[in-house]
Write a structure and sequence with these properties.
Length: about 90
């Protein structure tokens, strides 16, 4: 199991479009991918769960990847989040 603390950099937080990008990235991996935000544990493969969490810009989250491809999943997910999920051009 791998864990990394990241900060959401999207100006408008994880609304529909970036939540969709995040979930699509997560679905490429067999590992379980969880986002911890405060007391919430969100399954990253569910766009509805990610959106419903209401994660805002500047929020610190813990990304947890657990499974056979956890290293690749952590690298791809962290890169996607740090780059703004397609919204930071």
């Amino acid at each position: 199991m791998l864990t990394k603390t990241l900060t959401v950099v999207n100006p408008s937080g994880l609304h529909l479009r970036p939540a969709g990008v995040l979930s699509q990235t997560a679905m490429k991996f067999k590992s379980d991918i969880i986002i911890e935000c405060g007391e919430k544990r969100i399954i990253a493969k569910s766009v509805l769960n990610v959106m419903a969490a209401g994660i805002k810009c500047g929020t610190e989250i813990n990304l947890i990847c657990d499974g056979e491809d956890e290293a690749a999943a952590m690298e791809a997910m962290a890169k996607a989040i740090e780059s703004g999920l397609g919204e930071m051009d």
